[in-house]
Amino acid sequence: MDADLIARERLEEEIIRAMDRACAAEVRWGVDDCALWVADIIRAALGFDPAARFRGCYVDRAGAAAALGPLGLGMAIRAAAKAHGWKAIAPEQGQVGDVGLTALPALIDGRIERRLTTFICRTPGWWIARGAHGYAALPSSAIRFAWAVL
Fold first, then answer.
1. Longest C-alpha distance within the chain, in Å?
2. pLDDT of residue 1
3. By 3-state DSSP, what share of the chain in percent is helix, strand and coil, each rounded to 5?
4. Does residue 120 contact residue 98 with C-beta atoms inside 8 Å?
């Protein structure tokens, strides 16, 4: 069997496990927020941690912003993509386990602001992200940036 196909199957298995875990508990910053949730899936399936440098660095939204620095989540994902050889793709080309980003509304200090959120391709055409009380799914057309992890 092709190595990429085996890796995609592992990614799919880990995504399903992560979806089950997400529904069992509220999101925890620095543990299973959107970026670490996706990184956990990749680590379990592919054996490397694209978010290793951020683990243990924060426990809330403000801490995450400080850990990411002035360039934020988008540049952190781009740096991980470069470090691991991920290729930029159109979100519509996403395959199981590919990584994406889009801005979603978030309640920040009583105001609704758009914040970048990390997604993972669940199946071609659909992307999921860790939500406050589970996970959310969006079609490829809602994803702004995407990278093939294989």
1. 52
2. 66
3. 45, 30, 30
4. yes
